[in-house]
Design a protein that fits this description.
heterodimer; A: 621 residues; alpha/beta; five-stranded parallel beta sheet; four-stranded antiparallel beta sheet; 13 helices; rod-shaped; disordered C terminus; B: mainly alpha
Chain lengths: 621, 66
């Protein structure tokens, strides 16, 4: 087939003209576009067996490449699977392409979403220019000119905004929670510090009172010590007094002894001289030595001399007796004997006195030494006592000690309370910190960030709405201009002077008399001309100006007077693309409708046929 | 950027917006265009839009917008 031109598909009713178009559509998209029958079986001819497999194969050219597209369906699989294969220059068919590659080939030929502008039923003008169906003009324009893209983007941005708004709301709640948790953490930290300070203060107070207690103990200890010193002082003073008495006694004894023996001591020298003379006389035998009769008696009694201590025998006794007798006989010697006796007594007294005196003096010396020791100790004690400030001694130290201990207990209790507070607040801080961390991690992004994104999305959505409106206006103007130019070109004698398209995509015509009318006022021929002009404009605009056009029963409902206009319109479109048109051509020229005039149609068709290839569908296949 | 409709491309170029916003809009429209032509590609379009906006707000490389 040629790459451009009109291809008529002739045939009688039921010959399979529409089926052929349906088959092409089904091969490309897997569904049925005409008659609203969405069954693959529709592409099967009426005479085919129920169990026959439906298979459609198209050979297409896409740029310099050639592909074979085929689809097979059975009664169990209406849609089938598109099988695309590349055909090389020698005509060899390659392996099946992937599903994506196959779909891409179809998209390059004609995307499914705009195919309704290229597969036209006999009522296509109503469908395209109408407002009710999904294939309304507005929908088509939105779809074809991709305003749908903007519309979808607006909708998706709205969805995004809604989703982010929900996240934002959650983030705000989380943010509120996080803020409260942060406050809790801050408060906990402040309370911990305050309680730490309080604990420190309590410790200081406890230390202070313990110090006081220690001082009190020291004072009490000092007091005891003082009392001990005082007692020692008193003892020493008493001891000194005693020694003083002793010394006085010694002094008295010495004095008495001295006084008592003073005359004897004074006389002793004279008596000594006398004694010596008497002794010398005795030694000379002149005067026998006087012997005290008591001494003689005692000496006799014990056998030892009471004077010299020597043992005496019979001779000494006899001597002493002789002496005694002599004494007794010699009265004149009585005085001498008395003198000697007296002297002896005096001498003994003096010896005794010396002993007494010496003992007294020794005692006096010892007592003086003892006293000196006592005085020394006493001085030391007095010095210690002088160092003690007895005025500081508490009146009731035990009560004071209890008071201090009570204060220590009180501060200790507070310290424990503050320490427990620290534990509690630390626990609260840790829990709040963990919860805040969890919330912050789960939040993903915070409310501020989301708010910025939301603002951005709102801004972008507003821009898109503006863009849609501006693009829509631009497209409407282009369509209006394009359609009007095409319309005027096809119908140069049109009665209309101006065309407009409103916001609802309704075409309005203003005739040369200034009267306006809508599409509904147009005849079928005019409407189809308008629709084809629109398709031409749109397909040029979207880059599918060469996409094939399939029109089922193009001339249906058209007055024969408009056949020429329609064929002219089709002819102008066929410059760039292939146009496949089915046409009811009754056998033997039978008239099948009141508007049907085979002669006129044939004439016009042949006019086109001269320039283009024609495909026939025979009534008997 | 992508095979946007030339009318939309023209409207986008004449839109009163910053170049940065225009780039974001073009990226979003290109995504939508691809979705329309080729169908969703795994992730949802709204997530892709969020990614585009967040990438832009973070100041990512322009190439990442696509």
């Amino acid at each position: 087939m040629k790459k451009t031109g009109v291809f008529f598909i002739y045939g009688d009713n039921g010959a399979g003209k529409t089926t052929l178009l349906n088959a092409i559509n089904w091969c490309l998209y897997g569904d049925i576009i005409f008659h609203g029958v969405e069954q693959a079986l529709e592409v099967k001819p009426n005479w085919a067996d129920e169990n026959d497999v439906t298979k459609v194969r198209l050979i297409i050219h896409d740029d310099d490449k050639k592909y074979q597209l085929s689809r097979v369906a059975s009664c169990y699989d209406n849609k089938g699977i598109l099988d695309a294969r590349e055909i090389d220059e020698k005509g060899n068919v390659g392996n099946s392409l992937s599903e994506i590659a196959s779909d891409a080939i179809v998209v390059r030929i004609l995307p499914m979403n705009i195919r309704n502008l290229f597969f036209l039923s006999e009522n296509f003008s109503n469908e395209i220019l109408g407002h009710k169906s999904t294939n309304s003009l507005k929908n088509n324009i939105y779809r074809v000119s991709e305003l749908e893209t903007i519309e979808n983007a607006i909708a998706h941005l709205a969805e995004t905004e809604s989703k982010l708004a929900a996240d934002h709301t959650k983030a705000l709640k989380d943010s509120d929670k996080i803020e409260k948790l942060t406050e809790t953490i801050d408060r906990a930290r402040v309370m911990i510090k305050e309680n730490e300070a309080a604990v420190e203060k309590a410790k200081n107070k406890i230390a202070e009172h313990e110090d006081s207690l220690t001082k009190l103990r020291n004072i009490l200890d000092n007091s005891q010590h003082t009392r001990e010193l005082q007692k020692q002082r008193d003892d020493y003073e008493a001891a000194i007094s005693t020694t003083d008495n002793e010394l006085a006694s010694c002094e008295a004894d010495i004095t008495e002894c001295m006084q008592k023996n003073y005359q004897k001591v004074l006389l002793i020298d004279g008596i000594e001289e006398y004694w010596n003379a008497l002794k010398a006389a005795n030694d000379a035998g002149i005067i026998p030595a006087p012997i005290n009769p008591k001494i003689i008696e005692q000496s006799k009694k014990i056998g030892i001399c009471a004077c010299c201590g020597e043992k005496i025998g019979e001779n000494q006794i006899a001597f002493m007796n002789e002496r005694q007798r002599q004494y007794e006989e010699i009265d004149k010697l009585k005085f001498l004997a008395d003198g000697i006796h007296e002297f002896s007594n005096m001498r003994a007294d003096i010896n005794d006195a010396w002993c007494i005196l010496r003992d007294a003096m020794d005692k006096q010396e010892r007592q003086a030494q003892i006293r000196a020791g006592f005085v020394e100790q006493l001085e030391l004690i007095r010095e210690k006592l002088d160092d003690i400030d007895e005025a500081n001694l508490p009146n009731n130290p035990e009560e004071r000690r209890r008071e201090i201990k009570a204060k220590i207990e009180k501060w200790e209790s507070r310290r424990r309370e503050y320490a427990q507070n620290i534990v509690d607040w630390t626990d609260a801080e840790n829990k709040a910190f963990a919860e805040r961390k969890r919330l912050m991690n789960s939040a993903g992004s915070d409310a501020q960030e989301l708010e910025k994104e939301l603002d951005k999305i709102k801004h972008l959505r507003d821009l898109l709405i503006t863009l849609r409106d501006e693009a829509e206006q631009l497209i409407r103007n282009r369509i209006k201009d394009g359609v009007w130019e095409s319309f005027k070109k096809i119908l140069p004698d049109t009665q209309f002077a101006e065309i407009s398209i409103d916001d609802n995509y309704t075409f309005n015509f203003i005739d040369k008399n200034g009267y306006s009318s809508t599409v509904s006022k147009l005849c079928v021929g005019e409407a189809k001309t308008l629709a084809l002009s629109l398709i031409s404009t749109l397909s040029n605009d979207i880059g599918y100006s060469d996409a094939p056009l399939f029109i089922d029963n193009l001339f249906a409902g058209i007055a024969t007077s408009h056949f020429g206009d329609i064929t002219h319109c089709v002819e102008s479109l066929s410059d760039k693309k292939q146009i496949f048109i089915t046409y009811l051509f009754a056998r033997d020229g039978a008239k099948v409708s009141s508007n049907f005039n085979p002669a006129v149609i044939k004439q016009n068709i042949h006019a086109i046929k001269d320039k283009s290839g024609i495909c026939f569908v025979e009534e008997d296949r | 950027m992508g095979p946007l409709n030339k009318n939309i491309e023209a409207a986008l170029q004449s839109l009163e917006a910053t170049e940065e916003d225009k780039e974001i809009l073009a990226s979003i429209l290109y995504k939508e265009h691809r979705v329309l032509k080729e169908g969703p590609s795994g992730t949802t379009i709204t997530n892709e839009i969020v990614d585009i906006i967040q990438s832009n707000m973070r100041g990512d490389e322009k190439g990442d917008l696509n």
